[in-house]
UniProtKB/TrEMBL annotation, chain A:
InterPro entries: LRR_dom_sf. It comes from Ceratotherium simum simum. SUPFAM superfamilies: RNI-like (SSF52047). This is ATP synthase subunit s-like protein. It comes from the Eukaryota.
TrEMBL record, chain B:
The keyword Electron transport does not apply. It comes from Ceratotherium simum simum (Southern white rhinoceros). This is FAD-dependent oxidoreductase domain-containing protein 1. SUPFAM superfamilies: FAD/NAD(P)-binding domain. InterPro entries: FAD-dep_OxRdtase (IPR006076), FAD/NAD-bd_sf (IPR036188). Keywords: Oxidoreductase. Residues 65-455 form the FAD dependent oxidoreductase domain. Required for the assembly of the mitochondrial membrane respiratory chain NADH dehydrogenase (Complex I). Involved in mid-late stages of complex I assembly. It comes from the Eukaryota.
């Protein structure tokens, strides 16, 4: 029973090669083993045949459209039920968790289903949003920025949250107290500099950001920028070379 | 007898063995000969550049539908949008001609790389808004199969423009126009400025406008390389050469009111190769002048401006190169990570560069102090006399700084009204302009490229109406002035 399932797994991962290459792996990173041969074959085919190139471009566009589709705005819900319900619906649909003021955390189950009970909380503001790992991008952030009383926002490991998204967060400056950006692959120190608008921020998590060039120095500069905020990040000594007496 | 026969027999045997040995060559370089024959066959087949006399692979093609003079960010942007908006894949052949493949004097790569929406003209604001949208989604527009995504290193910290008492009313008006077009700009009073940016000395500042979103600076080299890569994958040809001549034909026609005009049409572009007298005449249908600081010379080659002054034939393209200096300095106690792109009331500007307290900045000289644009040498006294005093007055921490390096670049300066020239020439009917942006060409390049491509393919502007930027305004004397020029 395990063998056919493993085969299907491999087949599906091979099928996903084309579009995933463009987004994730770069040409400089050499994948190992049979992946390398497969990718070299795909590159050769795309370089020499217009049809293969057009097909791969089409698959890439489909992937991009999928992310756009996930981040569409729910104008109907917003008009009928208000911005809090629309924002909560958006987060739950993406697979995140939402906490209304005075209520418990709500999240969709493993299959993406969630109950629509929260539609009765039209006047209750949303207090906290946990969008870890969701495919939120610049467009989708519209739904979150309408939550004017949001106090805690977690965008951990979101693959499409980048510096442009952070430049929009100034709209939540009036209420946001806790923000977590740990593990976002596209956030760099330039986006972190935009957080100076968030004067009410008390906790900021900027650990494990691969795109930041100098994590220790960035943490110091962010701490200087936001004096009332506790910044969790890389240790300032990380990245410093050991002195001659410390080297073993 | 037998011995002689045996010797002859042994001698003749190798000759009779195979055809190859008959030729008498003692050694046979079979591998080398095979690769030579393969190359010859490849060049003879369709698509190869076959010339039995000499190699012509460095020359441009003999025919091309569109020739774009200038391979900087504006030229490549026009090429990209032409290929993107064409009705059928491969319908238009585009050739980009640039005389410097290292881009050593190109304004694009020497630019400070800022992008802002804080202009006074609605057209400029719209151009900038679309361009920032393009930059944000650059990996969807310029995606090439199997190549890594582009990292523009965009810094979204915004522009901070300071105004004195006399400029405050104009600034308020400008901000109103900007907000109407959709830019996110806010006005700040001197106290708000001091609260937000404690390192600023607000003496002499009456009002400040601060861009909250969609403004900042980025790496222009990355944009250029991304455009180049994408445009090559779409089938645009590149040629390193200099345009030396246009062969055109003239037609006498009558306007609706009975006046006679001479309309000119360019048929051939002569492209001369680097360091040689060899040139290739390229037959073309449309020529796009995106030569940046040297657009004036290209326009003169096409005969624009050769006529009695005051007439349409005698109106030259008023674009000339103007040298601007950029200085990089280090100041250990300088403004922090949140420093926006600050523009002082005196015209001096600066921005942060990187994490190490380095700053970039400069100032546009007045008309009397314009440096000689013959070379790109830097005048360090200009920093001492004209830039540093204003910097130290505005930011007291800059009183102690150390200049690390400096460079100079050209503005493609439009001496008429410092705004771009876009669209066809009224008399030379197939030359289109995309130049003269006087220092804000890089930030408007994607939108201008689209506008010129629409003009070429459809005949009119479709998305952003740039009719105020047409060439005819130079003859009619209608200045379209932009107040916020940095």
């Amino acid at each position: 029973m395990a063998a056919p399932r493993a085969f299907l797994h491999l087949a599906s991962s091979i099928w996903k090669w084309g579009p995933r290459d463009i987004r994730g792996l770069s040409r400089t990173v050499a994948p190992e083993g049979s992946w390398r041969k497969g990718r070299a074959l795909l590159q050769f085919l795309a370089d020499h045949f217009y049809d293969v190139k057009a097909l791969r471009e089409y698959l890439f566009r489909k992937q991009v459209l999928k992310v756009h589709q996930k981040n569409r705005s729910f104008t109907h819900i917003k008009e009928q039920y208000g911005p809090y319900i629309a924002g909560a619906y958006f987060v739950l649909k993406q697979g995140g968790a939402v906490k209304f003021q005075g209520q418990e955390w709500m999240q969709s189950n493993g299959r993406g289903r969630f109950s629509l009970d929260f539609f009765k909380f039209q006047a209750v503001p949303v207090e906290a949003v946990d969008a870890s790992g969701c495919a939120i991008n610049y467009q989708g952030l519209d739904n979150l920025l309408a939550l004017k009383e949001l106090q805690s926002l977690s965008l951990q490991r979101c693959p499409h949250v980048d510096d442009w998204c952070l430049s929009r967060l100034h709209q939540l400056a009036g209420s946001l107290q806790e923000l977590s950006l740990a593990g976002c692959p596209q956030v760099s120190e330039r986006g972190l500099a935009c957080l100076h608008h968030l004067q009410k921020l008390r906790r900021l998590d900027i650990s494990d950001l691969p795109a930041v060039s100098n994590p220790g120095l960035t943490r110091i500069l962010v701490e200087e920028m936001l004096p009332n905020c506790e910044v969790l990040g890389a240790d300032w000594a990380q990245g410093l070379k050991l002195g001659p007496e410390e080297q073993s | 007898m037998l011995r002689r026969a045996l010797r002859l027999g042994v001698g003749r045997c190798p000759l009779g063995r195979g055809l190859g040995t008959r030729r008498g060559g003692s050694t046979l370089d079979w591998d080398g000969k095979v690769s030579d024959i393969k190359k010859k066959i490849q060049s003879v087949l369709p698509g190869g550049a076959w010339n039995p006399l000499y190699d012509t692979s460095h020359l441009p093609p003999e025919h091309s539908d569109v020739v774009i003079v200038g391979g900087g960010v504006l030229g490549l942007s026009v090429a990209y949008w032409l290929k993107r908006l064409e009705k059928r894949r491969g319908a238009i052949q585009v050739l980009v001609v640039d005389r410097d493949y290292t881009y050593s004097h190109a304004s694009t790569v020497l630019s400070v790389g800022g992008i802002r929406q804080q202009f006074s003209l609605p057209e400029n604001i719209q151009l900038s808004l679309f361009s920032v949208d393009f930059l944000r989604n650059i990996n969807e527009y310029l995606a090439v199969v199997d190549d890594p995504p582009l990292d523009l290193q965009f810094n979204p910290l915004g522009y901070l423009l300071l105004a004195s008492e006399k400029g405050a009313a104009i600034m308020e008006n400008n901000v109103k126009v900007q907000r109407q077009e959709g830019a996110k700009v806010c006005l700040m009073s001197p106290e708000q400025l001091r609260n937000k940016f404690p390192w600023i000395n607000t003496e002499g500042v009456a009002l400040a406008s601060y861009g909250l979103e969609n403004e900042g600076w980025f790496d222009p080299w990355c944009l250029l390389q991304g455009l180049r890569r994408k445009v090559q994958s779409m089938g645009v040809r590149f040629c390193h050469g200099e345009v030396t001549r246009f062969i055109s034909s003239s037609d006498r026609m009558e306007t609706a009111s009975g006046e006679e005009v001479t309309l000119k049409r360019i048929h051939e572009v002569h492209v001369k190769m680097d360091r040689s007298l060899e040139y290739q005449p390229v037959e073309c249908a449309i020529v796009i002048n995106a030569a940046g600081a040297w657009s004036g010379q290209i326009a003169e080659l096409a005969g624009i401006g050769k006529g009695p002054p005051g007439t349409l034939q005698g109106t030259k393209l008023p674009v000339e190169p103007r040298k601007r200096y950029v200085y990089l300095w280090h100041c250990p106690q300088g403004p922090g990570l949140e420093t926006p792109f600050v523009t002082d009331t005196s015209g001096t500007y600066f921005r942060r560069e990187g994490l190490g307290n380095n700053y970039l900045g400069g100032c546009s000289p007045t008309e009397e102090e314009e440096p000689d644009p013959g070379n790109l040498e830097v005048d360090h006294d200009f920093f001492q006399d004209k830039v540093w005093p204003h910097l130290a007055q505005r930011v007291p921490a800059f009183e102690s700084l150390k200049v690390r390096s400096a460079w100079a670049g050209y503005y493609d300066y439009n001496t008429f009204d410092q705004n771009g020239v876009v669209g066809p020439h009224p008399l030379v009917v197939n030359m289109y302009f995309a130049t003269g942006f006087s220092g804000h060409g890089l930030q408007q390049a994607p939108a201008v490229g689209r506008a010129v491509a629409e003009m070429v393919l459809e005949g009119h502007f479709q998305t952003i109406n740039l009719s105020p930027f047409l060439f005819s305004r130079f003859y009619l004397g209608e200045k379209v002035e932009e107040r916020n020029i940095i």
